[in-house]
Structures are given as structure tokens and as C-alpha cells.
Amino acid sequence: EDLPEGVAPVSGPRAPLRRRLGTSPVASVKLASGCDRRCSFCAIPSFRGSFISRRPSDVLQETRWLAEQGVKEVMLVSENNTSYGKDLGDIRLLETLLPELADVDGIERIRVSYLQPAEMRPGLIDVLTSTPKVAPYFDLSFQHSSPSVLRTMRRFGDTDRFLELLDTIRSKAPQAGARSNFIVGFPGETEADLAELERFLTGARLDAIGVFGYSDEEGTEAVGYENKLDADVIAERLAHISQLAEELTSQRAEERVGETLQVLVESVESEDDGEVAIGRAAHQAPETDGQVVFTTREGLVPGRMVEAKAVGTEGVDLVAEHHELAEAAR
């Protein structure tokens, strides 16, 4: 049965029908709800329940509807996309679904958010780095890199394992994007733990880094932990790592100068000296990451995917020249 005009299929388990607001060429599609992980700092499982995957047919139906509304990029979201399909009997269901989504008429890019490093597998890395129209983009939830802090968080990994994962990804897709969030000042975190995090950040070459100071969240195991740091110590560490993150992500942007990018034009904005076209490359997710600022807006309209060359930076943002214009000027 056809849905009413302007109404989308459900956007998640037991969710109501959804009307699309706005005309952005980018939209999110929910893959699942809930989470089965028990990180000591996170209350999500207590109020969102167990991990429940949407049926692939529902995800495909919503993606087709969005494409009919003019959407060019779909961002798949959930608390843990690497677990998609495990409750449906197929932990590798995401590897099957991604090529099907990329084949939807009108869709130019599929992006996957929030991946758990401990659940990354060779087949998923292969699909994310080699499937046409699937962005080689890795939003990896590292949270820290000191093994002792990670154990206290009830997570897994360490600096060297995480760097090895990034090396594996870049060996398959050298221009792959990578971002992550980190918590500093976690109960029991030492100066040595902080130095280990710095070692990881310096070697990871992440495109975007979010840094947060620890604070108690009601309903989590960590609320009852001892060895909590003073607020001024947490604030000092937050400021230090945030400054380092800003420097490192700006350096990473500079490394990308000279790269050829596939950029989805998202908006044309008015500024004092005229109009400026803004877009995002495959390594840049909406809202959380940097963006691409074009040297001219000529021939660029929202929703158009264009090839461009990075010619400069503005902090974490890239300045790029549209290839068609560059060729016409020769």
C-alpha cells in the first residue's frame, strides 16, 4: 500500500511514520535501536533497551523514499552499527545491505556512523573501502587508548591495536576518513594514561576528534567508582587534549591538500563578498566534521556531487577548486 504523499516509512523499530522536514540533500536512516554493550560510563542500555535491528527491507524502503525526495546522501545511524543484524541471525548483514543501498536510484553516497573498534571485521572493512558510493568513512568509538582506562570503562583495545586497525583501513583506502570521540578525566586516569592517549592521537591522523571531560551520569556503573579526579584536574586535561586535537586535525587537513575529492554540495551561503558554496567530501560527516569551501560557486547547486581538488585549508575545513572550472580555465 502506498504511503501518503510526503510521509516516509518508519525510521526505526515501532517508530511513527515520518514526514521529511527541510530540503537538505543529506538525511539519516536509523539502522537499529538500543545497545547490548555495558560500558561503565553509558546509560543508553538502561533507557533504550536491547539492540534491535530494523529489517533490511524497511531500511531499503526508506532509502528509496528519501531518494525520491531528492536526498543524495544517506547516513546510517544507531548506537552501534557494527552489531547490525546480530539479532536477525546474521552479524554480517551490514556487508550485504550496503551494496544494495548504494544501488538505489538517485543515491550518490552511503555513510555509516558509529562503529565499535572491537567489532570491526575484515569483511566489513572491505565493503566500506571498496563499494562504489559507500563512503570509506570510519566513525570509530575509541573513547580512550590506555588499556587500564579502557578496562575500567568495560571496553577493549589499546593504542597499538587501534593504530593497527587504522593502518589496515588506510592500506585499502589511503584517503579514508576517520574520526572518534574521547573521554578524559575518567575515574582512576593517571598522567601515564593521558600520555598514552596523546601517543595514540599523535599517531592516528584522525580527521575529526571530539573530546569530553568525564562527569557522572545517573544509572551508570561509573557513578560508584572510587579514585575520581577533581573537577579542576578534569578541566585542565580537557583543555590540554582539546588543544592537541585541534592542532592535529588541522595538520590532517593540510595533509589532504592536493587530493582529489568527491564533494556533495550542501548549501550556497551569502557572505559579505558574495555567495559561497559549501559541501562535504567522503571523509566529512554532517555537523560533526569539517567541510569543503569552494573557491567559487559557479555551476554549483545543493545536491550536486562534483569532483574537486583540495587547494588549501581553513582550520579543519578544506578549500577546493571544482574540477570542471579548473579544466575550463586551462
From TrEMBL:
<dbReference type="GO" id="GO:0046872">
    <property type="term" value="F:metal ion binding"/>
</dbReference>
<feature type="domain" description="Radical SAM core">
    <location>
        <begin position="21"/>
        <end position="252"/>
    </location>
</feature>
<dbReference type="InterPro" id="IPR007197">
    <property type="entry name" value="rSAM"/>
</dbReference>
<keyword id="KW-0411">Iron-sulfur</keyword>
<keyword id="KW-0949">S-adenosyl-L-methionine</keyword>
<keyword id="KW-0963">Cytoplasm</keyword>
<dbReference type="GO" id="GO:0005829">
    <property type="term" value="C:cytosol"/>
</dbReference>
<dbReference type="InterPro" id="IPR002792">
    <property type="entry name" value="TRAM_dom"/>
</dbReference>
<keyword id="KW-0408">Iron</keyword>
<dbReference type="Pfam" id="PF18693">
    <property type="entry name" value="TRAM_2"/>
</dbReference>
<keyword id="KW-0479">Metal-binding</keyword>
<dbReference type="InterPro" id="IPR005839">
    <property type="entry name" value="Methylthiotransferase"/>
</dbReference>
<keyword id="KW-0808">Transferase</keyword>
<dbReference type="InterPro" id="IPR020612">
    <property type="entry name" value="Methylthiotransferase_CS"/>
</dbReference>
<dbReference type="GO" id="GO:0051539">
    <property type="term" value="F:4 iron, 4 sulfur cluster binding"/>
</dbReference>
<protein>
    <submittedName>
        <fullName>MiaB/RimO family radical SAM methylthiotransferase</fullName>
        <ecNumber>2.8.4.-</ecNumber>
    </submittedName>
</protein>
<dbReference type="InterPro" id="IPR012340">
    <property type="entry name" value="NA-bd_OB-fold"/>
</dbReference>
<dbReference type="GO" id="GO:0035600">
    <property type="term" value="P:tRNA methylthiolation"/>
</dbReference>
<feature type="domain" description="TRAM">
    <location>
        <begin position="254"/>
        <end position="324"/>
    </location>
</feature>
<dbReference type="Pfam" id="PF04055">
    <property type="entry name" value="Radical_SAM"/>
</dbReference>
<dbReference type="InterPro" id="IPR005840">
    <property type="entry name" value="Ribosomal_uS12_MeSTrfase_RimO"/>
</dbReference>
<dbReference type="InterPro" id="IPR006638">
    <property type="entry name" value="Elp3/MiaA/NifB-like_rSAM"/>
</dbReference>
<dbReference type="InterPro" id="IPR023404">
    <property type="entry name" value="rSAM_horseshoe"/>
</dbReference>
<keyword id="KW-0004">4Fe-4S</keyword>
<dbReference type="InterPro" id="IPR058240">
    <property type="entry name" value="rSAM_sf"/>
</dbReference>
<dbReference type="GO" id="GO:0035599">
    <property type="term" value="F:aspartic acid methylthiotransferase activity"/>
</dbReference>
